[in-house]
Specification:
There is one protein chain. The protein is mostly helical. It contains seven helices and no strands. Helix 3 runs antiparallel to helix 4, helix 5 packs across helix 6 and helix 5 packs antiparallel against helix 7. It starts with 17 loop residues before the first helix and ends in a 7-residue tail after the last helix.
Length: 220
């Protein structure tokens, strides 16, 4: 489809932690429960997105499963416009729908990676945590990897939002996905800025890491 970039792939992450991200994604796959033989055949973006909704529980395993479904949604093809999540009556509406869909999926991946990062993040380095210094440092490293992955998806989300807000779509409003329209608007006016949010999380994480690194045998 014209104007579409290559679907996001975690192995394209342009950070020093690239190999750790690949390992993390493999971990996600290993943690997924087997799909029962009676499950219906999943092929299109919209179908994968609905699976994400059915598994929206914020425990680590569920978060990792959500990430898997959302990743599959990025890579799959769109269903026929008849089965879109919005009312599509012409090609221009469908084009805007596709841009908004891709933006929304990237935003959901950001949310999931932030949830996952928060599971490993340490908000404080108390003196009595010193005996587990190395374990805490490793946990912080995992959280950092999750946050940086989320930051990667933010760039894609902004790119898709820009496309969806093109002047050609100025008078097109897809009411069934009004929340997606709102997300694009918030990205444009700066009220939704995950770069700022993630940057703040990474800065706080680094402060806690430095406190752990400074601990020695006399700390506790």
């Amino acid at each position: 489809m014209e104007g579409f970039a290559k679907p996001a792939d975690i192995q394209r992450v342009k950070y020093q932690a690239k190999h750790k991200l690949t390992a993390l994604f493999l971990l996600l796959l290993l943690c997924l429960p087997a799909i029962s033989g009676g499950a219906y055949y999943v092929q299109y973006k919209e179908q994968y997105y609905k699976l994400y909704h059915l598994h929206y529980i914020q425990y680590p395993d569920d978060t990792m499963e959500n990430i898997y479904w959302l990743e599959q949604a990025l890579k799959a093809d769109f269903a026929n416009p008849l089965y879109a999540l919005a009312l599509i009556e012409d090609k221009t509406q469908w084009e805007k729908y596709r841009y908004l869909f891709m933006m929304h999926i990237n935003l959901k991946l950001i949310e999931q990676y932030l949830y996952l990062g928060n599971k490993w993040n340490k908000r404080n380095a108390y003196f009595y945590n010193a005996p587990w210094k190395e374990q805490n440092l490793e946990s912080l490293k995992t959280a950092e990897t999750c946050y940086k992955t989320a930051l990667y998806y933010w760039k894609d989300a902004k790119d898709w939002a820009d496309k969806a807000l093109d002047k050609r779509f100025r008078f097109i409003n897809l009411e069934r996905i009004q929340n997606w329209e709102d997300e694009a608007g918030r990205i444009a006016d700066g009220s939704l800025d995950y770069e700022k949010i993630i940057g703040r999380e990474l800065a706080l994480l680094e402060q806690v890491r430095q406190k752990f690194q400074a601990m020695d045998e006399y700390t506790y």
